[in-house]
Amino acid sequence: MACGTHPAASTASPQASTIVAGAPLATSISTAVGSWAIVPMGDLGQPLNTFWQLFFRPLGSSRWSDKAEGLAVATNGGLVMAAPDGKSAVVGVRSAANLNFSPILTTVNDGRSWSPGPPVSGLASEPDALAVDSQGQGLALTSGGTSGGGVLASSAGLLNWRPIATAKGLGSSPAGSTCGVVAITAVAFVGTRPVVGADCRHSGVVGIFTGPAGGWHMSTPTLPASLDRGSVAVLALRPTRTGLCALLGVSVGHGTALMVAWATGAGLTWTLSPVLAIGADQLMSVGPDGPLGLFVLLSASSASESVDVLSAPGSSWRLLPSPPARTATMVLGSAGTMDALVVDRTLFTDWQLAPGSDSWSKTQVINVPIQFGSSS
Which pLDDT belongs to residue 302? Predict the structure, then answer.
């Protein structure tokens, strides 16, 4: 579907429900050298005893290792990550407790050592709150306040962070008024061009903006008519080898529908996936399925979990066998395997699903030495 002039936005209708809840921080990232996973561990009912862990598995290996200790900073607030060149990784640590800023750390050796850069004001609680392009320029999405959150940009080397957008400012721009920006929810790069995703107040409008040179411009797919009266949230923005991939959440009556939108080319030509109706299920995690696809991990009211996978433009959603209880996120493994990463207080367990199989096999257990009470 080509991206042209967006139709005039309608105001939020009585049938449109509230903005879809955002995506949790638990996620995974696949790179040319291996896979990263971010999961919460400890006592998840107590923020000061929840410790976010960062795991890495080298390409071709079946073994995970915990890299959070190398960050040398409290991780109660959560972690966000970007992988700019397929080899290095950049981690942002969300502020919590006595930490009133967000450290930014980079590794070029799979987490064996970390180099700190200038910190930013508190990163937002969004899985795509940090982005770095191939030239080392960065984007950071900071949390709320009276401006509804803001985007900072940096020069190469993640130096000299400076503001380039706020939700309030973007919402008052000509492009943003079409959306009725509620909050900025994600940042990404297409090449070296900044892209931000937002929740829109106006029905049926997808809030994806490119800029900021010459001002922000809306670059957005057009939803099918069956969804044009719902409120739309951009839940994730992930770069692909051909452009950009966005996960959209659309309110539909009292439930939610998910769609994936792929953008290619300099003009961001959009292709939409089939609709995945999830009703009242909660989104627990989103991450990559190969170079173009996404998985979504859902939790039903019965506490059971399900995994839906969308591999590429033109494909349909595929439901995997139900993963083990307490699955925090998923990782695409070698030879088409899928891993379910399960957390239970201090235990991290990797369960693997072989292609064509309908049962999960336990492959690794790590007992993480969590110091409860250390953040009080």
Answer: 61
